[in-house]
Each structure stands twice: as C-alpha cells, then as structure tokens.
Amino acid sequence: MVNLKINGISLQVEDGTTILDAAKKVNIKIPTLCYNPDLPPWASCGICIVRMAGSPRMVRACTTQVSENMDIITHDAEIIATRRTVLELILSNHPNDCLQCPRNGNCELQELAAEFGIREGPYKKVLSALPVDDSNPAIILNPEKCIRCGRCVKVCQEMQNVWALEFLGRGIKGRIASAAGTPLGESPCIKCGQCAAHCPVGAIYERDDTVKVWSALHDPERHAVVQIAPAVRVALAEEFGLEPGTIVTKKIYAALRRLGFNTVFDTNFSADLTIMEEGTELVKRLTEKNGAIPLITSCCPAWVDYMEKYYADMIPNFSTAKSPQQMMGAMIKAYWADKAGVNPDRVFSVSVMPCTAKKWETKRNDDMKSAGHGYDVDISITTRELARMIKQAGIEIMDLPEEEADNPLGPYTGAGTIFGATGGVMEAAVRSAFFLVTKKELGNVNFTPVRGLEGVKEAEVDFQNGTKIRIAVAHQMGNIAAVLDKIREARNAGKETPYHFVEVMACRGGCIGGGGQPYGCTDEVRSRRIAGIYRDDEQSTLRCSHQNPFIAQVYKEFLGEPNGHKAHELLHTKYVPRELYLK
Q: For 544, how many CA atoms within 13 A lie in the half-sphere containing its CB?
C-alpha cells in the first residue's frame, strides 16, 4: 500500500495505482478525453495533467503511478489554464455543428467545453475536410470530427483483435481511418460497433434507420411488427436517467405500441426457439459418429463475420442455427402472418437490438429471406435509436402502464432472457440439453461457472447418465483466439477436442455491452446490466426453453420437430469463407 495526499486529502491505495484512479477514491474528478476504463491508458490528450506540490512540472494522471508520500495538486490556476488551452486547440480542429451531430447532448468534448466555459476560439479553425465514410452497413465514420484520442483504434486492435482501424499520416495530417485507407465497408470491420461505443465524440456512430421506421409506422399499407432483444430491457432505462440494470420490459412494450407498432413480440421467445434448435443440434452431433465437435454458437453476427474471415476452417463446427433475431423474423412472416390473417407482404418487421452488427445481419445472405416475402427482418435499430424515437414522440416511458407482449411469439422463459449476458446462451443450452439427453428436469438450473466477466470461462457438465461435456465461454473478440487456437492445436495433433460446446460473444459482457447500447459502458455498468438480466430470469415462472408452452405450440402447429425439414428451411443458415478485404 502507498500513502499519499491529493489536494490535501490523505489516503492509502495499492501500489501501482495511477493518480487518476487514486483521485476517484476521494471523489475528485480529473478531466480526460483519451482515457477509458476498458483500455490501457496512453496519455494522448493531455487534459488530465496534475502537478506535485512544490514542483512546476506537470504529469499526466492517467499513466503516472502513485508513490510513497506523493503530494498531488489536481487543480490550480495554471493547471486549469493549460487544460483550457488543450481544449481550445482540439476545438480548433473540430467542426462547430453540434446541433447536427449524433452525439449532441451526449458528447464528452462538448461536456468539457461547457465545464471550462469555452465561448470563443482563440485559434484559427483548421478542418480536415475529409469526406464521411458511409460504406459500412452498420457504422459511419466522420473523420472531420475525430479528435485523434485513439480510443477506437485501441478498441479495434487490442480489445477486439480485428484491426479494421489504424492511424494514418503524421502531425496535423494525422488521422484515424480504416485499415490501409480503404473504405470502412471494404475493411476487416466486423460491425460490432465497439469503436462507436467508445468514441467520445461523433466521429464514429451507428447508421440511423429511424426515419425508415417512422415512414413504415405511418404507412397505412404496412403492418408494423417489432421484437426487442434480451439486453435492451436492462439498458434502455439509462437513456431516461435510471440506473443500469433497471428492468423496463413491459413499459417498452407499451412505448412501442404508442409509437405505432401494430404487433409487439419479444426476441426472448425466439431465444427459446434457438435453444431448441441449437440444443437438439448439439445432442445430434454428440451422438453421431462423425458429428463436428465442438459445436460453436452462432447467435452473434459480429462473431459470425469474424469467423468467416479469420477462422473459416471452423465453419464445420459452427451451429447452423440462425440468431434469435433472424428466427423471429422468419416466424413472423412465415407463421404468425398466416395465423393472424395478415398479408405477409404487408408486414414491416423491425428489431430493436443492443448491437450494430444486427443491421448487417438482416441482409447477410439469401437465407435471411427464408419466409419468401423479402428480408425476414426489414430494419434493425439499436437501443440508442429506440430511445431517440421515444423522445421524439414525446413519450414519458416511465409513466406508462405495464403491458404484455403479443401471443404467440411474445411469452418467454428465463432461459430466453439470459441470452443477453455472456455465458447466458451456454447456461440456457445446458438447462435444456440436460432434459433432451436425460428426459429429466435439471434440479438446479443456475449454472454459475459460465457467469461473470472473466474473458474465458471453462467448465464441465455432468448429465448423470455417463455423458459429460466440456464447455468454454469467450466474450470480447480479443479473447476468442485462446479458445479456438486450443481447438486447432488439438485437431492438428490428432488429439481429442478440449471442448464439446463453445459460446462466443463479440462484445465484452455479451449483448448487454453491445455496440448499440447506451454510451458510457464500463465493467461496473456491465455487471449491473447482467444482474438485471438474471433478476428477470429468476422472476420467470418457467426457466427452461423446452418448458415454454408457446414453443411447443409452434412446433406442433407449424415447424414439426426441432432440426426437422421445415425448421431447417426457416431457422438455419450456412457460412462461407470470406476475404478480410473486399476486392
């Protein structure tokens, strides 16, 4: 432990703590722009400068570690003047179009400029005049707004191991761009949106499709149907001032109806459906002589994109089950429309997702048209986009009564809701796979070894009939290689596979930390959202997917059996190797 003072306040912290983190322990805010708790600090922006008492030398708080008897001053007239100058220099290279910016009102640079009372720019305005890159189906890059903090590069390279973004040029001509200066849509980008989620300004943001949704909602020839993903229910409330993890599921249903949606379903239902398909697929592969093991989950479209580019040799191991979003889209147009007497060609299917890659997934290949009436999901919007729509409509969501989703594609089990957290797909699968193998219900459905924010989690499941399966859960794309390389090594050496079942999520924490969720996500926020997910699970009367009576109904009335012919036509897909760079 190290003893020190900050602004005259004595405290004790662990050796190796930075000044920035030490200041937080005594509720002193040191301003930052390049720093983010998800990333290693690298002192790019220079706003976090502090000094030692009695010394004129300033140091950067984000990278300077404390030492014994250190006496730190975090603000005085010179420090504040220096920080103001740094901000003024940044603003001299930044457009003044805040009212048209997607981050207006939620911008870290804007907030600091307001805190420091910057009203005039003493320096000549020099803008890059670089064009907006809208070549990507999910993410838009506006280099003119870039403040070169480097967060997006560090996220893309170090957290996600994708390397779609990099620094180009030097000095005043330095900029952040897609790899090799190619359009972002032709780069290795997997559309996960973590760059946008970590950008402090409006330089990278999700493609906004709300205008298209508004148009459909006010088209009398359209029947608007919507689904909401598991992770949306524990994050949307943050956009309205509530704590992360607050569950507002039934108020979201009510808000969607007031926006004008004719029918409201819940993606948790199709998560239950996914478990029936994927769980059956796992059991088949385990029992077949030449079944491709391990089975690797396919719910996350950013992971699908990554796998097809970086691990195409693993395609035989990938579950052919579509994601819950795409299963729901197919069921809406192929099953529900006929049952409800609605012309499927009139159906406009919208999904609300925590994920930017879902925008790309809706058009991923022709399997996404399996119902035969255009794309199964017409538009996917993020949690942030839904929040904007609710605000645009003047809806006070927290004052709304609680309402239920529509039948039969609305009711869900606890297993469906935990899809939103890392390890949730695996836990839901274990709950039902146990039943599929043993024909008995699992006594304790809480499979805790796969919970938490550890990057890779491993466990063994004993089905108590001689069947044991080894499983792995990985989240945050940079952690995936450790698992897949282990599988490759065993395969190349002719050894038994280290795992039978593997869950992968591209984003840290799983979907609760998706690139389309409310800004400001940290591990503390992720943990609270995950806690909300598991509260929703524990409150559910039914907690296993195979127990959902509406799942049984759709198989009886329409699909036949899990992994059957009709299920494969509508609920399964295929994969192909793809180049890192489009040509």
A: 19
State how far the Cα of 297 lies from the Cα of 511, in Å rounded to an integer. 14
The tokens for 229 are 């993903």
Q: How far apart are the first and last CA of the chain?
A: 55
pLDDT of residue 442: 86
Residue type, 498: P
pTM of the model: 0.95
Residue 212 to residues 138, 228, 349: CA-CA distances in angstroms? Answer: 15, 18, 12
Q: Specify the pLDDT at position 22.
A: 97
Q: Is the pLDDT of residue 166 over 90?
A: yes
State the Cα–Cα distance between residues 345 and 350, nearest whole angstrom: 14
Peptide bond into 408 cis (omega under 30): yes
Percent helix / strand / coil, the chain, rounded to 5: 45, 15, 45
- Residue 583 is predicted with a pLDDT of 64
* Cα–Cα–Cα angle for 403, 426, 375, rounded to 5 degrees: 60
Over 80: is that where the pLDDT of 375 sits? yes
Task: Evaluate the CA torsion angle 26, 29, 32, 35 in order and state its sign.
Answer: positive
How many whole angstroms separate alpha carbon 433 and alpha carbon 420? Answer: 19
CA distances from 36 to 63, 198, 201, 345 (A): 12, 8, 13, 46
User: What is the CATH class of 2-75?
Assistant: alpha beta
Which tokens in the block code for residue 454? 């550890």
Give dist(CA 327, CA 377) in Å, integer: 9
Chain CA centroid to CA 367, Å: 23
Residue 317 CA to residue 286 CA, distance in Å, equals: 12
Selecting from 3.40.50.300, 3.40.50.620, 3.10.620.30, 3.30.70.20, what CATH number does the domain 90-206 have?
3.30.70.20
Contact 201, 147 (CB under 8 A): yes
